Amino acid sequence: MKARVHVSYKTGVLDPQGKAIGLTLKNLGFAGIGEVRQGKLIELELAESDANKARKAVEAMCEKLLANTVIENYAIELDNE
Amino acid sequence: MKARVHVSYKTGVLDPQGKAIGLTLKNLGFAGIGEVRQGKLIELELAESDANKARKAVEAMCEKLLANTVIENYAIELDNE
Amino acid sequence: MKASVIVFPGSNCDRDIQVALANSMGGPVEMVWHGQTEMAQTDLIVLPGGFSYGDYLRCGAMSARSPIMREVVARAQQGVAVLGICNGFQILLEAGLLPGALLLNAGRNFVCRDINIRVENSQTQFTSRYEQGQILRIPVAHHDGQYFADPDTLAELQAGDRIAFRYCGSAGDESANPNGSIDDIAGIFNDRRTVLGLMPHPERAADPLHGGTDGRGLLDSLVSALS
Amino acid sequence: MRNEPNITPAQVAEHGLSEAEYQTILNVLGREPNLTELGIFSVMWSEHCSYKSSKFWLKTLPTEAPWVICGPGENAGVVDIGDGKAAIFKMESHNHPSFIEPYQGAATGVGGILRDVFTMGARPIANMNALRFGAPEDAKTRHLVAGVVAGVGGYGNCVGVPTVGGEVNFDAAYNGNILVNAMTVGLADADKIFYSAAAGIGNPVVYVGSKTGRDGIHGATMASAEFDDATEEKRPTVQVGDPFTEKLLIEACLELMGTDAIVAIQDMGAAGLTCSSVEMADKGGVGLDLDIDKVPQRETGMTPYEVMLSESQERMLMVLRPGSEDAAKAIFDKWQLDFAVVGRVTDTGRFIGRNNGAVVFDIPVRPLVDESPEYERPWVKTSAPAPLAAVTAPMDHMAALQIMLAGPDLSSRRWVWEQYDNSVMADTVRKPGGDAAIVRIHGSNRGLAITTDCTPRYCLADPHQGGAQAVAEVWRNLTAVGARPLAITDCLNFGNPERPETMGQLVGCIQGMGEACIALDFPVVSGNVSLYNETHGQAILPTPAIGGIGVLDDLEKHADLALRRTDDQIILIGETKGHLGQTIYLRQLLQRQDGPPPPVELAVERHNGDFVRGLIAAGTVDTCHDLSDGGLLVAAAEMAMAGDIGLDLNGPDDPGFWFGEDQGRYLLSVPATLVDAILQQAEKRQVPAQIIGRTGGETLTLNTCEPISLSRLRRSHEAWLPDYMNSN
Ligand SMILES: Nc1ncnc2c1ncn2[C@@H]1O[C@H](COP(=O)(O)OP(=O)(O)O)[C@@H](O)[C@H]1O
Ligand SMILES: [Mg+2]
Q: What's the CATH code, domain B2-79?
């Protein structure tokens, strides 16, 4: 099974990367661009085939490593769910 | 309208970050983990309300800035599409 | 006094702090591999600078989950002095021994430069050799040094005199913040002031040939407090 | 041998082999090659690996001196620096990949040169980078500068080796073809150098580091081909660097080198596993059997062709002593790196590959190397430049100075080097910003001085003089900090050698370099050639980048360019004839590029330099700057800005005096009490020396020109590059 974890900054945390992207897009002539945020997308291949168990495992991975919950939120998507 | 751009390495391109994450997850005792890949997720707020036009614009942004098409692929998701 | 430097895969200032500490202590410094689960008795634990795990995912994230860190946290809870420099500071935050987080520099580039910091609290085992308000000239070299804390945490740090150093101009007043850190913060203590994390590298300003010795006071303070 | 379809002429051409070269392959094998064999021949005989156009001329360079432990031919050059220590160093180009993908191209360039150095047993202690970009106005330049600088820093900072210096030039000739030359200097015990000659029949051949993927297949052939519009198609040949793995690889290799397990070791650079195994076998005069299926692979279904030609980064090949495999493996396990026994040393003299037991290639080693083509390409001598037309000063000298210091050629490179960690390892004594960087030899009071230099506009006007000048400037920059110059590495970047004019530039530069090396006792111990640097027939400026090292026996006695005291006298050493041909003054203020470059008088260069070095070694002089781009007034201003102390200068009004680029000159700042003694010594030694000013105040003053405040001068000098990079 494949899992996709999306990690993004919590609101209130500065995102210099996103800000710079927004600015550069404007400089490149793109109009009508509001806020831009950059996050991470982590894709994992898992041996686990039970969706419930897989989600539990990925949640544990997020809490333990993949996200820093002081500044980041995470969301998990599973294939075949 | 909101657009989400997912930028990831092309297959075959080494992903050092993903490799290190996979290793650490194993070191932490998580079992059954296959390949791990890390990509970027860029979220944009757009003034454009026409989905077709929005997609065109975001595609141009990807080609011009958001993705490095030498080594990266991108995929675009639009809200309300 | 006994001091131990933890070596993570990708640490690259481990030898630098080892040499500088050994000079201050006049004796050897223990190097401890991150994969160990135990550590001999020690008075000071140093988490060195570098790019542990390549700074991949988040700086310090993977090192903070190294086997030895369980022991480091336990010792810190017992009151053993812990010093985290640069990447070591990032690891301390990821390990929860200090509050807040370090984000990408506001300028988005790596920055290597001599900067000034002001000693904000000289009443600690890390800073007793400095005067309150003393300006130090010390190099920074980092990509992710922008200190961030939510308003409550920040207020707590301020109220508890837990800000160790702030970036400042050469006269000590105007701001000269190299990375956009909130409140110009360059280093912070835990609530008992037994743990210090800072971005600048005192070990690179510890020898006349470095072009300055302002970092040496930090190491000398520790030696006099812990010997 | 597996049956495969016959090789077609189109495949031969695709592999960059000429018909004649293919004929030689048929002769060597006595049969038709299969595709894997064709691939192996093609990378081994590419310009990059075989030096087929330059070999003939490279052999003319002087490579020996009593202190040279190992000259060209190994992964890097090795020189004895005293106290039982050796310095190991080399410079290498990563031009084409950096143009296609600046960040990763530059990053993997740094990774590659680091491996060349630690392969030989050295701990890398310093990196340098010599960069050439197109005109600032060119649409691509800003993006390329940003990517390359971030890539150099991203890799070097992460592995924890300080980047202590380099150069940055802008010129329209590099618009379609930038140059990224990286240099690494390492330190080893002089009696513990590791070489690449395989030995010991039956000994295990071991692969360590990262797994092999499909990256960079045909990278070596790409570095030997001209750019065209199909460049986009070649894109997947760019590799992503993994500096974290490199750092682990450095530590693991150095740990293993502390034991006696290694018989021979070689990094996998261009042409990967093929080039490394063939070179190891050839140097040792042995054969090598490889089990391709044992090679750690990142992707499934890789063919032997792909495994043999992959340029995946962060990999090494070693021959171990029998029985040491387990101990070696334990070290690589600890660092979580791949380790696999992939073959054996044999006495067959053949390079044989098997996949699951079946032979997939079988090539005699010697001919694969010895029969590699070598061309004495036709060349024409570059015609002598026309004499310089009359020059009239377009403005007063101070106004000229301000424009020059705040322009693309001479503005501060701080924006670049602040992105490089220049003090990790805590042994950096002189950071970027001076003439040569100084790095302490760890645990001692001695140091190494390091610099890279080349003035391509001189090389274009007169390759011979330009080649000599590049070597002389390196020597001078080392001397200016008080170091005893020891040896150089070179990175010869040129256009298409099949063009006689370009070949003439290469020949001229090498001849000039060789003369300078002999006159200055400054041998070449390693180097690299990068040809075909052109796009749509537009060649780059001939750019023989030179990297040099020197030794300081007492770090207490070194010089720096920053003024230290007020009321010092400024002494100009060397003769000033006022040579304005090919100067920055002409180029920037008059948009002219005419006349000959300044002649390099090697005997004078040496004489003046030895004098200056003697003063520094004696502890008499601690403030010194050599004169190069921009001439006297620029050098003086740099000294004032660096030390934040003003200067009052006096001399003739002639622009040639203040902006001429005559060679062999230095500025010294000395306390008034020492001036007479220095001038007397100079006279006795017949070294031209004259007082041209004194230090003090907060302005730069020249004759009767309006003084300029140092802070204003510094602001515009510092601003150009960041302003340029931040505007789009
Ligand atoms: N790409 C670079 N990386 C690091 N340092 C650089 C780079 N380019 C220039 N510098 C530094 O800036 C200073 C001035 O460079 P340059 O004008 O080429 O010196 P010089 O004329 O003495 O050879 C030197 O100290 C040099 O090392
Ligand atoms: Mg110089």
A: 3.30.1280.10
